[in-house]
Amino acid sequence: MQAADENTQEWQKAIKKGDCFWQDTEYGFQIYGEVLKNAPRANTYTITVSANATLKLAEGEIGDVHLSVISGLLTREEFEEKIQAL
User: Fold this and answer.
1) pTM of the predicted model, to two decimals?
2) What is the CATH classification number for the domain harbouring 81?
3) Cα separation, 47 vs 63, whole angstroms
4) Residues of the domain holding 42
């Protein structure tokens, strides 16, 4: 976990509740998610997310994601479009 924390970029550290994001995977598809809860305390970079939707799991699931694996942010409109396209 320390290595992941050290690899978290400043823009990733600023991600907060309500933000939408996308994440590349090593399997050739992207994951789309929305942040449900901020990190539980300062200098902790694991957040709780919802609607982790992919082509494999269009209905999504709730889980925890380390900020360092988030590839980029989406606007609410972009997020909704991605989910609808699945």
Assistant:
1) 0.80
2) 2.30.30
3) 8
4) 2-85
Place of tokens 């789309």: 32
Domain count, the chain: 1
Place of tokens 């709780």: 48
Distances (CA, A) of 31 to 17, 27, 66: 17, 11, 13
How far apart, in whole angstroms, are the C-alpha atoms of residue 27 and residue 11? 25
Task: Express each pLDDT in 35-68 by its tens digit.
Answer: 888 777 666 677 677 656 566 566 677 788 888 9
Beta bridge partners of 86: none
Give the start-end residues of each E strand in 15-60: 20-24, 30-37, 46-53
